[in-house]
Amino acid sequence: MRWLFYVSLLIGAFATKNRACSKCKFYIPAIYNEQYDMGSYMGRCSKFKEVDKDSQAIVYRFAAKARYNEFECGSEGKHFANDSSGGENTIGLV
Predict the structure, then answer these.
(1) Residue 91: helix, strand or coil by DSSP?
(2) What is the pLDDT of residues 8-27, one digit of tens each?
(3) What residues contact 21, with CB distance under 8 A and at least 6 apart?
(4) Distance CA 81, CA 28 (A)
(5) CA 32/CA 79 separation, integer angstroms
(6) Phi/psi at 15 (nearest 5 deg)?
(7) Which of the residues 28, 30, 43, 82 has an alpha carbon 20 to 30 A from that of 58?
(8) CA distances (Å), 8 to each of 1, 4, 12, 16, 59, in order?
(9) For residue 14, what are the contacts with CB-CB under 8 A and spacing of at least 6?
(10) Cβ pair 51, 59 in contact under 8 A
(11) pLDDT tens, 36-90?
C-alpha cells in the first residue's frame, strides 16, 4: 500500500511545471550494483540532508519526499537549480 502513496507523490511532484529532479544539480541518482540506475523515484537530494545521530553519517532525503514537502522544495521545485555540469551528478552513490 505504501507504493501507491509514493506513486501519487511522484505524479503530483512532476506534473506541475515539469521541473524534473533528475535535471537538478542537487540530485543524486540511486545506483544499484554500480551500473543500474533505479529511476528518479529512488534518487536523493543533496540540498536537504540530516545527520544520523547514531553513526554521525549524512543522510540525504529522497527527492520525491523533498518535492512533497512544501517547506523544502515543494511541488513547484522552489530550490531547483539547473545542472550545468553536462553529466551525471557525482556527489555520491546511494
Answers:
(1) coil
(2) 666 665 554 557 788 888 88
(3) 13, 27, 40, 43, 45, 63, 64, 66, 67, 77
(4) 13
(5) 27
(6) -80, -25
(7) 82
(8) 11, 6, 6, 13, 24
(9) 20, 67
(10) yes
(11) 667 666 888 888 888 988 999 999 988 888 888 888 888 888 888 887 765 555 4
| pTM summary value | 0.60
Beta strands in 1-94 (DSSP E): 27-28, 31-32, 36-37, 44-51, 58-62
- What is the C-alpha to C-alpha distance for residues 5 and 8, in angstroms, rounded to an integer? 5
Please count the other Cβ atoms lying within 10 Å of the Cβ belonging to residue 4.
Answer: 8
Instruction: Please report the sign of the dihedral spanned by the C-alpha atoms of residue 13, residue 92, residue 47, residue 88.
Output: negative
Give the integer Cα–Cα distance in Å for 10 and 20. 10
Cell of 29: 541518482
